[in-house]
Design brief:
about 130 residues, mainly beta, eight-stranded antiparallel sheet, 8 strands
């Protein structure tokens, strides 16, 4: 019994390390780089970064689509001329396309614009601002 107690922590830690060495990715997580128009979205298992022509927004946690591909995801930016901006992305995603609405809310206005992003694409150059996020 004494030998078992001494070796038990070794076996437990070996089992835990051997079971999962990769980060957890939730079912339905949207992962990859998507772009279209002035937008570029980089999604991973634990965060989403959205680059616009005039802003940078970060969301915590995975963007998870439902079984039909629908999603709603929110993020915030403090670094903006007009104060904090809250962005909500609402739409649908397939293996190659993401489309929907981008809703931007700042202390002075709310704006909504449509977007379509393609996986692996690059954003258009030369766009100054998008979706009222200025």
């Amino acid at each position: 019994m004494c030998l078992f107690r001494r070796l038990m922590p070794f076996f437990v830690s070996a089992f835990v390390v051997g079971c999962r060495s990769e980060p957890f990715v939730p079912d339905g997580a949207v992962v990859g780089t998507w772009a279209g128009g002035p937008l570029r979205l980089v999604a991973s298992a634990n965060s989403v970064r959205l680059f616009t022509g005039c802003g940078f927004f970060v969301g915590s946690g995975a963007m998870v689509a439902d079984p039909l591909g629908g999603f709603v995801y929110g993020m915030r930016s403090e670094a903006n001329i007009r104060g904090p901006v809250v962005i909500t992305l609402r739409g649908a995603v397939t293996a190659e396309r993401m489309s929907g609405e981008l809703i931007a809310v700042n202390p002075y206005s709310t704006s909504t614009s449509r977007f379509t992003l393609t996986k692996g694409a690059e954003p258009d150059a030369g766009v100054i601002c998008a979706a009222g996020a200025s």
